[in-house]
Amino acid sequence: MANNIRRVKVSDIDLKERVVDIRRVTKVTKGGRTFSFSAIVVVGNEKDIVGFGQGKAGEVNTAISKAVEQAKKNLIKVIVHKGTIPHEQEARFCGAHVVIRPASGGTGVKAGNAMRAVLESAGITDVLASSKASSNPHNVVKATFKALTLLRDVRSIAQQRGISIEKVFNG
Fold first, then answer.
1. Which stretches within 48-128 are classed as H helix?
2. Which of 14, 22, 41, 136 is the most exposed place for a label (fewest CB within 10 A)?
């Protein structure tokens, strides 16, 4: 499975960032409660590259900037075929279970907030996606990323089976 992950360097890619979730978190200490903020951010070039990151700090802006920096380190290349994904894919992360299905042109991105941010940042314009079980944005984003990394293109399927690309379609 590790060979499915396609890492990308940030050098000269124009990335757009989307804040998925910001939460105030509390640490209880002997002297009382200490408040800080946790943020999860998705970055992407809206073509085929996307990444996510988490940041935690005493201020919201600092938490977001930390999350953006981490997201730039975790970029992956997604297989996008005519604005949609090549095949249906399921993935789980902790309590979150996501299903993404290809859709015909003009359908749009039918997904919840956390999944929508990931899919639109990846450049996917037509897809049907659903999130089952947990609605925790952190886990939904991670499950969506897992599903996107498991996507395979026709060339890799043909190579794995040892057949030509035409035989993949014709059976």
1. 60-73, 113-121
2. 14
